[in-house]
Write a structure and sequence with these properties.
homodimer, 193 residues, alpha/beta, five-stranded parallel β-sheet, globular
Chain lengths: 193, 193
């Protein structure tokens, strides 16, 4: 593949998505994030809401728990969505130089595309403030929401890549957005690109 | 403390020391690395060779294994050297804005100084080539030398900081020097500083 891809893995609430968008503007390339969810929904037949909550989540139980969506080709709905997601990521990387947020794109494109692999993290306090500001409060505490989401992403990544999510050695650049700030992260990644 | 410090933690053979030196030139500040070993030797009475091999190594056995160096204030020689090292790092950070390579400086200065904490890593192949080029071959394979040194630094860091060496969340910036290259790492860190 001739294109240059930036993959951004991110802790929930670390601003990885915002960094992707700003970076895209700065580099004049596209950033793919929710568009991938839309396409998975379109191609799978599942609703956007279902894809959004389930497509970066490891299956919590056996296929017997999901009898309505069970099909004969894939063991779980997640496997089914994973395959669609994988093809979308490969297609994007083949088509253009771009930024892909999440979706295990770092793993899917490993040894195939010319990737700058990035991980964005921040401490709990900073991330709590950010998700409350962006998504508001609800009955679950921000810390619990962060921990649940991180755990779920980590399990999902492990299941489909057999690699450890957030292991320093899997990324070319890892940045603490809580201390460095979103704008500085954008500058650093664009310089490295 | 009013000074701004860059701490560089690094895997053996990743070029962290070279990055520190080049960064020092670029930012016109001092980089402290082997000078700290010299000072520990001077202040402890141990030889430079002994300090060099032992001061970033966790004690391998009980104090009974080191009866000649045993003293009544510290349990082990490493504890003794740790205390001297800690004071030197604090003194440097108090004195001037500078770069400190290794020595658990990130931990020693945590919550005390304004630090940019950096971790440099690279894959085994790149690090092997680097140590053979810099230090030559010997009877132990490069991979074994790397693994032993990483293990030793990791155990030392854990012992004195109770934190995990190379955990992505302990550093503001982590860079793969094997892929990005030494010069790009210098540019990125200087920009973040």
């Amino acid at each position: 593949m001739k294109n240059r891809i930036i993959t951004i893995s991110r802790e929930f609430g670390s601003g990885g998505r915002s960094i992707g968008k700003l970076l895209a503007q700065k580099l004049s390339i596209n950033c793919y994030d929710n568009q991938i969810i839309d396409r998975i929904a379109q191609e799978s037949g599942f609703s956007k809401e279902y894809v959004n909550t389930q497509s970066e989540t490891a299956p919590q139980s056996s296929i017997l728990a999901n009898p309505f969506f069970y099909n004969y080709t894939y063991s779980t709905n997640q496997d089914y969505m994973w395959n669609i997601q994988r093809n979308i990521v490969l297609e994007l990387a083949e088509k253009e130089s771009c930024i892909i947020v999440g979706r295990c794109a770092d793993y899917i494109l490993k040894d195939i595309a010319d990737c700058l692999t990035v991980f964005i993290h921040a401490d709990m306090q900073k991330r709590s403030e950010r998700i409350v500001k962006l998504y508001g409060e609800n009955s679950v505490s921000p810390i619990k929401r962060l921990k649940d989401k991180d755990k779920s992403r980590s399990a999902y990544y492990k299941l489909y890549t057999d690699m450890e999510w957030g292991n320093i050695r899997n990324y070319q650049i890892a940045l603490n957005s809580g201390i460095l700030g979103i704008s500085k992260c954008v500058d650093i990644i664009s310089q490295a690109y």
